[in-house]
Amino acid sequence: MRSSDKLLELIKESEGFSSTPYLCPAKIPTIGYGSTKYPDGRKVSLSDNPITKEEATTYLRFDVVDAEKLVTKTVTVPLTQGQFDALVDFVYNLGSGALLGSTLLKVLNNGDYSTASNEFLKWNKARVDGILKELPGLTKRRKAEQMLFNN
After folding, report:
1. Helix 81-94 vs helix 53-74: angle between axes, to the nearest 10 degrees?
2. Residues identified as active-site
3. CA distance 28 to 43
4. What is the rounded average pLDDT of the residues 128-133?
5. End-to-end alpha-carbon separation of the chain, Å?
6. DSSP symbols for 44-101
7. In this prediction, what percent of the chain has a pLDDT beyond 70?
């Protein structure tokens, strides 16, 4: 299964676009729609040249492939396109470790889609100045993933 255009639009909306490199909240150089590396494998550097939205979309399509592979490899139950897209976005945003160690994956692979859906909303916090805080942007993104998952 491959990510849908609907997922790419969700990522674009959630990440926003930056033509120039910046440090994401995790202090990682990032460009475009959340890309931390280029298709040739080079990591983004803060001194890199600006890119266009078209280039950013190309990088995004490349980036989601790793998340697609992880979801395909680790989920053992059938998925709808929406469920697949929601899980790919979750991995794209939080990283592979978040899914691999999650209750979401465990209950999903046990066939409990309803409980799995509710697990998305638990991933709306991040460390800010050393304190775990709920972030409105993450809450919005997790709700969007949950809606995709349920439709």
Report:
1. 110
2. 15, 24
3. 10
4. 85
5. 17
6. P-TTPPP--HHHHHHHHHHHHHHHHHHHHHH--S---HHHHHHHHHHHHHH-HHHHHT
7. 100
